[in-house]
Amino acid sequence: MDEVTAIYPGSFDPWTLGHTDVLERALRVFPKVVVALGVHPTRQPLFSADERLELLRQVCAPYPGAVVGSFDGLLVDYARSVGATTIVRGLRSGTDFDYEINMAAANADIYPEVDTIFLPARAEKQFISASLVRELARHGADISKYAPAPICAALQRKLRA
Ligand code: PNS
């Protein structure tokens, strides 16, 4: 059987321990997971695409099944180009679900071979989001419970600059 590849897309601005949890669980199901940075031309992220890619490489390094990539077009086009037919998304709340169910339907409409699976956030990680981590870091709070060490260090450098 060919190696089944899944794609775990996101903005990852920045990557959090919630993302780590989803990646680890996805790797229990799929031997290879492409962690794909989606670059939005109109959004103003805290970290540039290059910075986020470098951070993704660092946080994904401990996982042999994880491969880091990026795309600035349609997710399904990128999924097709890497041979992935499963999109993995984490779900934290009903609000997430309302957004995600539409995205999954649109993606399947454009690329019928693709399917989306949702991994529900673990209860203790449910409130962790990239925006929360940015906000806490801006106010000098300890974010080591919410983001991996390379992200905490990068946030400190960024916010000091
Ligand atoms: O972490 P995010 O911001 O929720 O990630 C969103 C992302 C990057 C997965 C989504 O915006 C995306 O897939 N963008 C690429 C453009 C695209 O394919 N849009 C159609 C989806 S309906």
Describe the protein in words:
The protein contains 6 helices and 5 strands; from the N terminus they run βαβαβαβαβαα. With 161 residues, it is α/β, with parallel strands linked by helices. The chain has one domain: Rossmann fold (3-Layer(aba) Sandwich). A 5-stranded parallel beta sheet has the order 3-2-1-4-5, sandwiched between helices. 28% of the residues are buried. The structure holds 4'-phosphopantetheine. 4'-phosphopantetheine binds at residues 9-11, 38, 74-75, 103, 106-107.
Write the layout of secondary structure elements.
Layout: E1 5-10, H1 17-29, E2 32-38, H2 49-60, E3 66-71, H3 75-81, E4 86-91, H4 94-110, E5 115-120, H5 130-138, H6 149-160
Parallel strand pairs: 1-2, 1-4, 2-3, 4-5
The chain binds 4'-phosphopantetheine (PNS).
What characteristics describe this protein?
161 residues; 5 strands; alpha/beta; five-stranded parallel beta sheet; binds 4'-phosphopantetheine; Rossmann fold
- CATH superfamily, please? HUPs
Strand order of the largest sheet: 3-2-1-4-5
The amount of beta strand, in percent, is 15-25%
Name of the top-level CATH class? Alpha Beta
Please, what is the average pLDDT? 96
Q: Might you state the CATH topology name?
A: Rossmann fold
Structural class: alpha/beta
Distance between the termini: 50 Å
Q: Please estimate the helix content.
A: 40-55%
Bound molecules: 4'-phosphopantetheine
Q: Uncertain segments of ≥5 residues (pLDDT<50)?
A: none
CATH architecture: 3-Layer(aba) Sandwich
Tally of separate domains: 1
Report the order of strands and helices. Answer: EHEHEHEHEHH
Let me know the largest β-sheet. Answer: 5 strands, parallel
- Characterize the overall form: globular
